[in-house]
Each structure stands twice: as structure tokens, then as C-alpha cells.
Amino acid sequence: MLKSVRARLTLWHTLVLAVLLALFVWAAYAFVVRTSRARTDAAVLDAVGHLRAALLSERPRQPTTADAARQVLAGLHFRKIAFVVFDSTGRAVAVSLTRPELEPDEEPSLSLDTARLARDARAFGPAEPQVVALPDREGGYRAALASANLPEGRFVVAAVVSLYDEEETLADARRAMFVAIPLALLLAGLSGWMLARRSLEPMITMRERTARIGATNLGERVPIANAADEVGQLATVINDLLGRLEQAFAQQRQFMADASHELRTPVAVIQHEASLALSRSDRSAAEYEDSLSIVRDAGRRMRLIVDDLLLLASADAGEVPMRRAPLYLEEVVADCARTVRALASARDVSLTLTLPDEAPFVGDEALLHRLVLNLVDNALKHSPAGASVTLHLGTDTSGYRLEVADTGSGIPLELQPRIFERFVRADEARPYSDSNASGAGLGLSIARWIAEAHGGQLDLLRSSSAGSVFVLTLPADDAQTGHE
Q1: CA pair distance 384, 387, nearest whole angstrom
Q2: Which residue, 37, 202, 403, 477, has fewest beta-carbon neighbours within 10 Å?
Q3: What is the SS3 assignment for 397?
């Protein structure tokens, strides 16, 4: 099988052209044969009509029909047409030439098969002239027969023309076609190869340029010769793909840098406390206990960051299993509120719930629990003492709507468009808390992914110095599915 696209295009181009040429040549040859045969038949019919009319006109002036026939044939001059007059028994009473295709001064090399013609004459009965074929190895003859009623009885006159010259001409035409067609196909193949090569040059350039693009030079793009044609459209798609890859690589590098930065702090704390604990042998049990407590908190923070990173990496790869099952959203929200109520009390933050009687839904309860917990934890972390956090779960035209509002200091205006990006925190100076989140700026990214995985959406409704409001919407279709 041909591996080159140019070779396949050239082969198909040549094959299609060969079929079209064969059909055209066959049709043209058939047309030429039919036209030539019709012209020949018209000539012999015209000649036999002249012969019959002349014989009928000459017979009264001659003693016998044979004499009249010979007299008529002596005066008829049709180039390359022979004339024969048969009596009622099929005997030839007058013949003009032996070889119709030869001029009178040429040496005949083949005699007309008068016996076959005589049999046709004896069997001829129609009143109108008729053309018959007399085949032989030299191309054969076409003979026009016509009857004439004379005093001695019914005579048959014949005008005969040889097809030798016609067959020679057709043979020359066939030989010319056998030479011209392969030559035309050869030229077509060469031109098709050059055309395919020229047409594929942009793709070859694209291939070479794309082969040189790697992780270090993703900013390069393939050239676009004509953005309107198919190759240009392919180049545009490839450039768009390279743009997305470049953006993904940049995000990946930033992700790794941010992850390294976030993990560096707890690692440094653990290393410092361990070194401090080992630097003196006379440390008290209380001092060792304090160091181990700090190491424990730093290890807990590391574990939370690593868990969040693993979840986001699995989400990006589409490998997080969704364990969908019927549940009640009001129970999920209430359970999250119970989880953080002690933390809210410790910070002197009031927690208020507004829940419907029932909010059936179909989804992954563990992931939804984490989504709501991240939103509530984020609100608590940015709420000062005496502030309040409100959770309101209701319905609208699109499905369920959960609003999580706080009365904290709000999110800085310049960070609001990026608040759902990874490792973005509204308060960079805040280290980490004793909450269930890592505090590394991953909670809102995870919450938005969980919402989108359930067909919903998580947005920042508003944020100011009076506080922030996040809105979670989940589609009604999933809710309805849970009650069918």
C-alpha cells in the first residue's frame, strides 16, 4: 500500500483520468465508426438508385436487359463503387469492376465474392433498396440491393463498396489511441505528482515546523499561507492547539511553583523545630511537647495541601470517580454547619441556616459535602469576631440555589476576577488555620470543580467591605432524577 499522500493522490488522479479517457475514446470511436458506416451506406444507396433508374431508362432502347445493363455500367462512374446486375436466377449479367476499392488502373489483388452476393440477390425481396454486409478478412463490403421489374422478369441491381480503406483508417485511429492514451496518462501522472507536491508543500512546512516545537518553544506557531483554504484552516486549528498547550504548560509550571512555595513553609517549620529540639539535650518535656505540637500542625497542613493537589490533579485528568446517589441537599448543608459550628463559636462568629423542608438531589455526597464545607470555611476564615455567616438554600427556575454570605472585610477588587484560580488567597498574610481546609488557596478551585462536575456553577455574587456572597446553583434535572 502506498504510504505517501502524494503518491496516492497521483494514483487516484491517473486512474480516474484513465477511466474517463477510456470512456471518451470508446464513445468517440463508436461515433466515428457509426458515422463512417452511415456515410458509406448512404453512398451505396445513392449509387444503386442511380443504377436502377438508368437501367429502367435504358432498357427500351436495347434489345435485352443484359445489353442495357452493360450499356448503363459503361456510362456510370462512381469512385470506388462496383456495380453488378443479377437476373431472376441470380446470374450476374453485368459487372463494372472486380475490386471496388481499386482504381481502374490498379492491379486487383482480391476478387469480390459474387457468389455470396448472388445468394443475397436471389433472396432479396423488398421493394425498397436495402444494405447488406459481405464480411471477409480484408474488412468486408457493404452492398446496396434494389429490385427492378423488366420485360425478362425481376432483376436485382447491386452497388458494392469495399470497407478496406475505412478499416485501414479505423486501424490507424486505434493505433493512434493506443499511443496517445498511455502518453496522456503519463503526462497526467507527472502533472498530478507536481500538482500534489505543490498543494502539499504547506503541509510539509507545517510538519517540519511542528516537529521542531517542544516544551521549551511552545510560543512558536506554524505558518499560514492562506487562512481561507483547508490547509490554512488546519494550520489555524494546530496553532489554536499549540496556544492551549502553551497555556496549559504555563499553568502547570505556575501550579508546580505555587505548590512548591506552599509546601516549603510547613517543611521549613518541621525542619526548624526538629533541629531546635535536637540542638540541646537538656530540654524539658514541655519544650519537646511544644515542638512536636508544631511539627504535628505543620504535617497536618502538608497533608491537607497534598490531598487538595491530588484531588485537583485527578480532576484535571478526569479520573475522580463520581458516586452519584439520591440524597437531600438540606442534610448536606446542615451537616457541614454542625462540623464548623465549634470553630465558629471559638471565633465568636454567628452561623445562621435557612433550609427548605426537603431538597432531594442526585450527586456525590462526599464531594458536595466538601464543596459546602470549603465555602463555609472560607467565609469563617475571613470573618472577624462578632461577624456572621449565613447559609441560605432555596430554589429558583434553574434548580437549587445556595448562598453563603459573610460580613467580613471582603475580597480585594483586583483579586475578585482570579478568586477561583489555584493558590489565590484574599489574605496572603494569613498563614493557615485549624480549619478543615489547607489554607493554600485551593478550596474555591476545588469547590468550583465539584459544582461543574454536578452540572452546576459556583460564582462570586458580590464582595465589598461589608462582606462577600458566593452563590452555588445546581440544575433541576438532577433533582428531578432523584425522585423518579
Answers
A1: 6
A2: 477
A3: coil
Q: How far apart are CA 33 and CA 40, in angstroms?
A: 10
Model confidence over 399-418: pLDDT tens digits? 899 999 998 888 888 888 88
Partnered with residue 474 across adjacent β-strands are 400
CA dihedral (425, 336, 464, 384) in degrees, to 10, reads -80
Please report how the helices 365-381 and 443-453 are oriented relative to each other, as an axis angle in degrees rounded to 10.
Answer: 150
Say if pTM beats, i.e. exceeds, 0.90. Answer: no
What does the alpha-carbon distance between residue 266 and residue 438 come to, in Å, rounded to a whole number?
A: 11
Q: How far apart are CA 371 and CA 363, in angstroms?
A: 12
Question: Which tens digit of pLDDT belongs to each residue from 447-480?
Answer: 898 999 899 999 988 888 788 899 999 987 644 4
- CA-based Rg of the chain, rounded to a whole angstrom? 52
The β-bridge relationship of strands 457-464 and 141-150 is: unpaired
296 and 379 share a domain? no
Alpha helices in 61-212 (DSSP H): 65-75, 114-123, 164-212
- Do 26 and 130 share a structural domain? yes
**Count of domains for the chain:** 3
Beta-carbon contacts of residue 59 (< 8 Å; ≥ 6 apart) = 65, 68, 150, 151
Look up the domain containing 110 and give its range.
5-169
Does one domain contain both 272 and 392?
A: no
What pairs with residue 361 in β-bridges? 327
* Max Cα-Cα span within the chain: 166
